[in-house]
Write a structure and sequence with these properties.
single chain, mainly alpha, 15 helices
């Protein structure tokens, strides 16, 4: 499986978060229009009554449009993914037949866990029907983890549940954050994603995507002590690129955790101290800038805010993630233009220095 096939789960979260943001903005506009009635119109005048009677219908129309647009885009992506997964079942090539003839003999033999692991790593994750055969071998030999993607029926059921969750959230959200706190959480979305892939079997995730899932898992451990120890162990055993990504995400979600006593453990302290010294403020500034940009009253104002902070690599990363998740063409074009201008400025600076 390629990473893009998992983007439907990210899109589900973004769809819910975007609807919430649009709802809140529409609600704020409604309140502002009510507040401005007496300032803009003569009390009791026909114009005031006319304007007042428009406010709630306009709000409801704006919300209905947001709901419809977001669900249409999400359902379109779901339909495409279902088609991709269904098409895999129909692929029975000569390669499939050859591999199945080689592996067929294993169905009557007992395979050890180590032997099965070698087979799954070598043959698994390439062809749908080979994965099904390996699944049967694992089941016969009492091997709990087949290490291959689940069958089509399981995936389609998960996608249906995901679609229902998103629709229920959008249909039911009424401006209260407490509404659907479980099904819209990162923890719940990642759990569905994990089931969809059977523990990410055959999935290639970049360091930031791996870090997101590790942080989500750690922050949802039982007690604060459990969370601290899990985070410390994850940092100690991760590669430097994943360590940096984990710490940048942690600085956004739970900055106090960076100063937890467990972060003073051997093998962790130097990593955390280096991050706080060099990158901690950059992460914080990126979050502030992105929030300001999200609350901008126009696209021009949004781009101005992003441009002023464009040298911050964590902000650039946030912009790239937003573009990937929302397919915001306007933001994408502006981002590419900003990158080109920055590169031209660098080249001009090097030329002036005679480099």
């Amino acid at each position: 499986m390629i990473k893009t096939e998992l983007e439907i789960f990210t899109m589900a979260k973004i769809t819910m978060d975007t609807y919430q943001a649009r709802y809140e903005k529409a609600k704020e506009r409604r309140k502002e229009r009510f507040r401005n009635l007496n300032a803009n119109y003569k009390p009791g005048s026909p114009l005031l009554l006319e304007e007042r009677n428009k406010i709630v219908p306009d709000f409801e129309a704006e919300i209905a449009k947001a709901r419809n647009d977001l669900m249409m885009e999400f359902e379109d992506s779901l339909m495409k993914l279902r088609a991709v997964e269904t098409a895999k079942v129909a692929v029975i090539s000569n390669e499939t037949k050859t591999m199945m003839s080689v592996l067929d003999c294993l169905e009557t033999k007992t395979v050890s866990v180590d032997e099965y692991k070698v087979l799954a790593e070598h043959y698994g994750g390439k062809l749908y029907w080979i994965d099904r055969l390996l699944e049967r071998v694992a089941d016969k030999c009492g091997i709990m983890d087949s290490m291959v993607q689940p069958p089509l029926s399981v995936k389609l059921e998960i996608l249906q549940t995901l679609e229902q969750n998103v629709r229920e959230y959008i249909d039911g959200y009424d401006g209260e954050n407490k509404c659907f706190p479980v099904t819209s959480s990162d923890k719940y979305i990642y759990k569905m994603e994990e089931s969809y892939t059977n523990g990410y079997s055959g999935v290639r995730l970049d360091s930031r995507e791996q870090a997101k899932r590790m942080i989500s898992k750690a922050l949802n451990e039982g007690s604060s002590l459990d969370r601290s120890f899990v985070l410390a162990n994850m940092l100690r055993t991760s590669t430097p690129d994943i360590q940096d990504e984990m710490l940048s995400i942690l600085a956004e979600k739970d900055p106090a955790a960076l100063h937890d006593p467990t972060m003073q453990f051997t093998g962790v302290k130097n990593v955390v101290d280096r991050f706080i010294k060099t990158d901690g403020e950059l992460v914080k500034a990126a979050g502030v800038a992105m929030k300001k940009a999200d609350n901008a009253k126009s696209h021009q104002e949004r781009i101005g805010i992003l441009w002023d902070n464009f040298d911050n690599r964590y902000l650039r990363k946030k912009i790239e993630e937003r573009i990937a998740a929302t397919n915001d063409e306007e933001l994408k074009d502006s981002y590419e233009n900003m990158k080109e201008i920055k590169e031209e400025q660098k080249q001009e600076s090097r030329a002036n220095k005679g480099e």
